[in-house]
Design a protein that fits this description.
single chain, mainly alpha, Ferritin
Length: 278
């Protein structure tokens, strides 16, 4: 085991602020009322929900594994402030995994197996990376997708407990996306100070990475197409908003990094970054 004698840079206010925000906003599955009557009683709807929730659960589990792997990487890089935040991100993903595991028990159903949902595993495999910026670009797609689906579940109001689960997770997802923005802005500020060649190379690489992950979404939707339609979720609208949302967020971070490098504005505060993502 390696130990890194590096203290956090407390002057990185946005990184420290979002870490403190994450600490203050922790919550538990035990905070929800699991005794409420189940509104989803139709066996057919239970089957459909079990299939549609599979990519959401898979995303939470995959994020837990990949975030946990990046924590020592950030320590090795001396990015201790970001390392601090990722410890809370891992806790968030563990909580989300537990929440959906409990909800599957409430439905008395199981998620789709890897044999029946290979496209979902391919999607997640495109996100994993040991490079923080590369991983954040890929996970941007997964986080925005989860956000869009959970918002739809809340709007459909299929089950009050599911709506409460989604509401809690959406607050966490806004914070994850806020950290993504803070980290990427900081990264591109440094790249702009290094020179245009570095900016162009990083921009092209991360945009291509986002596109590769996006390309894996339609096959995943194909697997649950009829279920999405039956529940009332428009996959075409979701994908259009996903594609524009992921690319818009990266472009915004790049532009703000440029403006910060040129002294035209400060990097986003933690509060502003999270508010923009909520």
């Amino acid at each position: 085991m390696k130990f890194y004698k590096v203290l956090p840079d407390l002057s990185r206010k946005s990184h420290m602020a979002i870490w403190h925000q994450a600490l203050r906003q922790q919550w538990s599955a035990e905070d929800l009322d699991w005794s409420r009557p189940q509104r989803i009683t139709s066996p057919r709807l239970k089957d459909q929900m079990a299939r549609v929730l599979t990519p959401v659960l898979m995303g939470e589990q995959a994020a837990l594994y990949s975030v946990s792997g990046l924590i020592p990487v950030l320590g090795l890089n001396g990015e201790v402030e970001s390392q601090f935040y990722l410890t809370t991100w891992a806790v968030d993903e563990a909580r989300h995994t537990e929440l959906f595991a409990r909800y599957y028990g409430r439905l008395d159903r199981e998620p789709l197996s890897i044999r029946r949902f290979r496209s979902g595993y391919l999607f997640q495999s495109q996100i994993v990376s040991t490079q923080p910026a590369e991983w954040l670009a890929g996970v941007l797609v997964s986080e925005v997708l989860a956000k869009l689906l959970l918002e739809d579940f809340m709007n459909l109001d299929l089950d009050p407990l599911l709506s409460d689960i989604c509401a809690g997770i959406l607050k966490d997802e806004a914070r994850h996306l806020g950290f993504n923005q803070i980290y990427m802005e900081d990264r591109f500020k440094d790249l702009y100070l290094q020179g245009p060649a570095q900016v162009e190379a990083a921009t092209t690489h991360l945009r291509n990475r986002i596109q590769r992950v996006l390309d894996c979404v339609p096959p995943m939707f194909d697997e649950v197409d009829k279920d999405l339609a039956a529940i009332g979720i428009d996959r075409r609208r979701i994908f259009a908003e996903l594609e524009s949302g992921a690319n818009r967020r990266l472009a915004r971070s790049i532009e703000r990094g440029r403006r910060a490098a040129e002294g035209l504005q400060d990097l986003s505060s933690a509060e502003d970054a999270v508010t923009e993502q909520g």
